[in-house]
Backbone:
C-alpha cells in the first residue's frame, strides 16, 4: 500500500457502483481514505474544491435518482448553481457518487472502472458485484 499515492473516495456503501470502485482501488493495492459523505455531510469549500478538481458544474454531479432533486426543482433548467449547491449542503445524497481523488486527478467514477484513469497501478482484471469482468489497461508509461 502506498502512502506516496494517496487515494480518497467519497463513498456511499449502499451504492453498488461506489462499492465496486472502492474494491477496484483496494485490489490495485491502495488503502484509500474513505469518506462516507452521507454521514459527514458536505461543506461549501469541499464541494467547490471537488467541482474545481473535476472541472465540473454542480449540475454535472447532481444525482437525480433516489434523491429529492426533482421535488426541490433542481432538475429544472432554471435551477442555479448556487441553488444546487445549497441543496447539496442540506441533502448530501444529492451529490452523485463515487467521487475519487488522486494526484492524477479527480473523477466521478460512473461507471466504476473510470477510477482506473487516475490510478498509477491497477489490477489486471476485476470482477464487479454483478459478475461483469473489467480488464484494466496499464496507465501510459507504466509497467503494470
Residues:
Amino acid at each position: 500500500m502506498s502512502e506516496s499515492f494517496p487515494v480518497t473516495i467519497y463513498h456511499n456503501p449502499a451504492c453498488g457502483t461506489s462499492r465496486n470502485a472502492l474494491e477496484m482501488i483496494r485490489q490495485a493495492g491502495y488503502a484509500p481514505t474513505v469518506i462516507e459523505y452521507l454521514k459527514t455531510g458536505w461543506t461549501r469549500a469541499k464541494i467547490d474544491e471537488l467541482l474545481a478538481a473535476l472541472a465540473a458544474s454542480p449540475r454535472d454531479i447532481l444525482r437525480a435518482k433516489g434523491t429529492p432533486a426533482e421535488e426541490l426543482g433542481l432538475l429544472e433548467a432554471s435551477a442555479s448553481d448556487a441553488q444546487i449547491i445549497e441543496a447539496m449542503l442540506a441533502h448530501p445524497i444529492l451529490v452523485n457518487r463515487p467521487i475519487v481523488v488522486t494526484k492524477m486527478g479527480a473523477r466521478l467514477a460512473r461507471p466504476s472502472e473510470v477510477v482506473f484513469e487516475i490510478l498509477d497501478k491497477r489490477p489486471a482484471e476485476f470482477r464487479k458485484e454483478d459478475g461483469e469482468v473489467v480488464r484494466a489497461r496499464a496507465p501510459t508509461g507504466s509497467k503494470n
Remarks:
- Residues 71 and 109 are 26 Å apart (CA to CA).
- The chain has a mean pLDDT of 92.
- DSSP finds four helices and six strands in the chain.
